Amino acid sequence: MPVHDWSRVNAGTFHHFHTLWMPAISNALNSGVLPPDYYAMAEQIAGPFGPDVLTLQTDSDNGTNGASGTNNHSGSIALATAAPKVAYTAETEMDEYVLKQRTLVIRHSSDDRIIALVEIVSPGNKASRHALRSFVEKATAALYRGYHLLILDLQPPGPRDPQGIHGVIWAEISDSRYTAPANKALTLAAYSAGHIKRAFVQPLTVGDVLPDMPLFLEPEVYVNVPLEAAYRDAYRGVPARWRRVLEKQSPE
Questions:
Q1: pLDDT number for residue 252
Q2: Is the dihedral angle over the CA atoms 92, 52, 113, 46 positive or is it negative?
Q3: Which of 108, 154, 184, 194 is placed for a possible disulfide with 203 were both Cys, Cβ 3.0 to 4.6 Å?
Q4: What value, to the nearest 5°, has the Cα angle with vertex 41 and ends 218 and 108?
């Protein structure tokens, strides 16, 4: 199913789709995508960062934070074995002194360790300078704390994020800049949060089919998230009135 132009509908309609896509992704992760010692839960709170999907590791796992633990991750992929199939990759070292000036702290009340966060960007995340800054600072803090990220940005860039939210995040943690292709305004970005922060970026445009994207469990280990299948499942729940708008079968 091709990606729709969500700018054709109001924020509430995308929010409705958002609430359907979250559990669809979570269900896919929990139905065999994640190794058995990992699980995903939606709508959890990790300190000030409220991600759409959390990937957690059970207490029974005694794995380590590195590629040496790959033998315990059935179904996961080692970065050295097969790199994610994305258009752009980049890496950087984060400036710890700069990050320590911020007071953002990410915690979770459960005994299970947070591994990764999945976030679907909503129109509200780009609605104001404050909203965008809040999102970017929390994402940056999550990376600093060692939480891997998968950010799904199907919202068109605006004056505050001309290269999409990934462009703003990458400018925050790196001296280099990301420039989106002129004909690919939407962005999927996966981040490996080891000592060296790595970004795996896939630009998209309306009409493209969503590719699988990596979700890192360790700095060198990831699983592929079946985004297109989850998108298709979620889209079935969008009211027909708004599907007609998105499919350009009737005027908005």
A1: 43
A2: positive
A3: 184
A4: 70
DSSP-based helix, strand, coil % in the chain, nearest 5:
35, 25, 40
- Taking the C-alpha atoms of residue 157 and residue 152, their distance in angstroms, rounded to an integer, is 13
**Can you tell me whether residue 151 is helix, strand or coil?**
strand
The stretches of the chain forming alpha helices (DSSP H) are: 11-28, 96-100, 129-144, 164-173, 227-235, 240-246
Q: What is the pTM of this model?
A: 0.78
89 phi, psi to nearest 5 deg: -130, 150
Q: What is the token pair recorded at 113?
A: 């360790």
Q: pLDDT digits over 87-125, tens only?
A: 666 666 544 433 332 222 223 234 467 888 888 888 888
Q: Are strands 196-204 and 113-120 parallel, antiparallel or unpaired?
A: unpaired
Contact status, residue 148 vs residue 215, Cβ threshold 8 Å? yes
229 burial level (CB within 10 Å; 0-12, 13-18, 19+): middle
